[in-house]
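In the previous chapter we treated chains in isolation. Here, by contrast, the input contains three separate entities that must be folded as one system, with a combined length of 1297 residues.
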Amino acid sequence: MTLKIHPAVNDLKSDYDKGKMSRREFIRFATLLGLSATAAGQMAGFAFPTTASAGAIKRGGKIRIAAPVHKVTHPAQFSWICPSNQLRQVAEYMSYTDENNITHPYLLESWQPSADLKTWTLNVRKGIKFNNGDDFTADDVIFTFKQWLDKNVGSSMLGMLEGYLDANGIEKVSDSKVVLHLKTAEIGVPEHLFHYPALVLNHKTFEGDFIKAPHGTGPYLLKEFVEGERCVLVRRNDYRIKGADGKSLPYLDTVEFVDMGTETAPMIAAMQSGEIDMIDQGDMSGPEVYQALKGNPKVQIYPVATNQTRVLRMRADMKPWSDNRVRQALKLCQNREKILALAYFGEGMIGQDVHVSPKHPEYCPIETPKYDPEKAKKLLAEAGYPNGVDVNVAVGSGWKEIVRYAEILKEDALPAGFRINIQTMPNSQYWEKWTEVDLGITTWAHRPLGTMVLNLGYTSDSKGAPAPWNESKWVDKEFSELITKANGTLDVEERRKIFCQLEKIQQERGSAAIAFWINVWTIASKRVQGIVSHPSLYLKLEDFWVNA
Amino acid sequence: MDNTKSTSKKNQNSNLDQNIDVPKKGKGRFRDTLKILFSSKAATIGLILVLFWVFVALLAPYITSYSPMEQDWKAPNKGPSIAHPLGTDELGRDIWSRLAYGARIVLIVMPISEKLWIPGGTAIWGVIAALFCGASLGLISGYKGGWADEIIMRLLDAMMSIPVILLYLIIVAALGASAVNVVIAIAIVGTPGVARLVRSLTLDIRTRDYVRAAETRGETLLYILFMEILPNAKGPIIIDAMLRVGYAIFAMGTLGFLGLGMPPPSPDWGSMVAKGREFILIGNPWASLWPSLAIASLVVGLNLLADGLREESMRYQ
Amino acid sequence: MAKFIIRRFFLLVLTMLLVSIAVFLIVESSPGNIAKNVLGAFITPEQEASFLAQQGLDKPLFQRYWFWLVGSDRVAERKCGFELERIETASGFQEWWVKGENGSLMRWNLEGEDLFVYIRKDNVTIEKRKDNERWVKAGDGSSIFWGIDRNNHAVLWVKGASSEVWNFVVGTGWIKSTGGPQSYIPLKKGFLRGDFGVSLRTGRPVEKSLFIRLRNSVVLAGIAFVVVMPFALLLGMVAGINEGSFQDRFLSIAGMIFSVIPEFATGIFLILIMAHWLELVPGASVFGEKAPWQRPDMLILPVLTLTLIELGYVLRITRASMAEVMRSAYIRTAFLKGLPFWKVIFRHAAKNALIAPITVIMLHVNWLMGGIVIVEVVFGYPGLGQYLLDSALYKDVNAIEAGTMIMVLLAVGTQLFADVLYTFLNPRIRYS
């Protein structure tokens, strides 16, 4: 077997051998460059643990998951994790980023980037069938790409891709080969393909509403989808991937998602009495649920640290936040330890006002700012607010930890002269105007690479206007240039150097205050087996099975 | 036993009757009212409960050792202790302080905005607004009669048939959660009931001599309605208003519980229950137990007081 | 009597009309951007306009209300000159079609400059072909056609017009073109003809979710009613027989206290004690595909919560009525005649004492609903109350209207029923 290995993999290997890079980081980058995870693992002298032995696994049965069942039409338009957790069982992604942030090919067989990272060859896996009998081909891949790139679909994929890819940069070579010609070098392509709206659609039957033609390549079939009530999935018999017992996955016959409203208390009670097996916490913060269920003998908890955070973001184009001194003053009003302890029960890591988590591979250690209301008061006075300033902070009342964060901030920012008025609204209303409010606290999902977040949230489009997800409208020329440079830099030490600069800029003049990074938990009843907790809380239900 | 008890009470009442038959002014009348009050055990207990909360609200800064916003991040979600007699909430705030200041929002002051607070509690203002609208409509309807009466009463019937919770939901969900909107919701919900009561009282009073006299004197409509009829109907209206304050407090609690109450960190009782609820299963039932009890005790107090007054005043009539 | 019922029925209709207008106005006046809510924060103004047009939200308030009330299909029929028909597909989606010349069903779609017709034959196969003969020349040189599109709108398609429109084209997304749909009428039959419209929140017809929720709520309320009534009436009578006694005071004060402890508090602490500490019954209601009566264990706590709050109310009314009857002359006479105690109570007193409570309780349905909403939220019970709360927070006008109408109908209907019942129970009353 000849392996065509990207030249950079050898560099990575030497970095790894010299101890510049952790084993995990080596595997992550090597797989991004097209090496299979097993091969990369072998190079790093590391064996992947084999999954559960075939003997233990039982087939059949049903599980119930409490999850909101939203209205869904176009998967590329997802702005919530929960719908993706329901439909990712029916349709699939081209790649798969696992719980260790390592990205594997999935619907693709493999990918090969060119040496300059500007041409990516995607090899489509052959022999895959959609659940309506259609063959999965390069046409479906291209159709899906075009949907994301279409401005009028309004997909969040656009914000990630438009910086480096145009619709005319997609070339179909054959039915099983697609080549992407990028405008700029980009290393994150495979990981972008696993962003939650990136479900691959059937180009023959998709007409803008997935529920009307639920034709995907995934392990389950959509039996019933009633918005606001439930979503029922049943096993597909001819799924391509085999389980540990040699037969087709999935192990379960039926999965039912039950919409129990927005209150967590009934879900906790239902977990305790065994009425549901799991709570899909993809879109809600779970510290209360975790606290309530952690001692329960019927419940198993799978914790995972994440790059998810709650961002107190200030519109850099609106008063008073257009003045960096005011932004810095508010950042100084965060008593980070207290915020983490009270808002999230201490279950996470302290943040440093940079949107790069200590868990991101490129993270460059940076000092944590101290709580200093005196200094904040001085800064406010310098900015022209010697008597303090009245501000409104918008928060979605469904995120309990965000409300607590705001309450703590209100109290701790008072001595500095910020008189904060907390405006609560239902989460749905917050999403209506999350890019518009001058001061708000937004939830940011887990993303495996630091560059992914910074590209999404803190860059501008080709004309210099802030990108759609740039909610704080903060555009900094030096920062943008450094991001572009980082996107094309493979060597992790080099990237880390760039990130040291990026983080310094964001901390000193950025528009986001980030006080903490959160842990999440997959919480399931003990009878459900085969669970691996994903930092985005994505559910891989084909691996689940029930014990009795 | 029972019989003797009730007869002795009857006698007491007839004494009262005699006392009241003698026309009295000012202090004397006040003393009579108190006498009526204390002659009923239920009313006495009710009065004590209500006065307790009124004093707590008035004296909140003097009887609490913390501000309601003060956070102690080393001691969140604690049960009762010497430092915190009722325990602390999820941010380490003293629950007793929050209850006391919460009572202020209900009974003493109303936050119009972050800075502007006006005297008169939110529940009180809601009831006053309902009384004003309801009394005006009821007076006109009862006094004028005819088609005005017909139209007003049909409209009010329509309003009354809308389930109360639905009105609260639609109004507050549509207008947003704030003290003013809560007042509006309470007023809209309460108006038809007040109007019906005032109308029936007016129907009776308008045939009285002093009303006829005022008419022949050529007094204006407003004078007759508000100076002649309304003062003579005030007894039942006051009793009704007390019950309404109870409903209003209940409604505030419900809205707070549904997340439609005052914005945080306001010590709104209903919101306190809703927040505390998250921590019950973690092992801290106190944070939602105390505000629940506060709502219940104040509403019980108002109910007992109103019931007692009504019973006694019926005998007195 | 008949006259009375007719009059009350007329008032019911009037009430519902007024309430529906009021709800429309309140929802209308509240702030919020429904297009952003549905499509996300990144839509362009053109897309927003297109969305509003397709939902019919660009029409004046009066017209929207009218369409909601009586439907828009008649107007659409006049515009396009075809007879319209609503069918339900095998997979449960509602679709509007035009009844074609030979009895087949037709819909159209504009692709680029070409009009395509979809003809539905024998309810299974759908034939698609070019249909450019339909275009009609308009005054300004453009071609127009009023037809039905594939998303249940009557649409005015224009070719060669000067204005630009945004249109969602299958497989490509939103595209800008010089021709295309210029005006939309979302098709519905209207409330009066049993069509509640499409929910903005779920994108599906309101009645699909509403009636299951209503059924669940009715089950909950019905069981609570059956549990509360005999119990409360009995206790109320016990209290009323011995007015002023210890039992009386105890029962009436206990009843009052229970009736003023907020439902949410009762519910929360019942869950804590019964489900969390004692683990006797489930503390939440999860039905999924099952109906509530298939899981009676999950109904125990919600019913108990409702019972506690309603019990006190009914008890106090019964007590007052019973006490009044016991004071009346004929009961005293009966006792003086030496009739046995229980005979007097059941033969004479109870019969008369129960008339008032039964009717007053009917009037109380209004309050009961409030209790149900809270109980549903506390227990995650999939009922009408929770549906309404979600809809109100989302400003989903069709869902709010439908829920409100049902609640008003129930509330006023029971009041009417109570009045009628009252005349039967108490022959002295005659309405005229």
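The longest helix of chain C spans residues 206-241. The CA atoms of residues 46 and 166 of chain C lie 7 Å apart. Compare these points with the single-chain example from earlier in the chapter.
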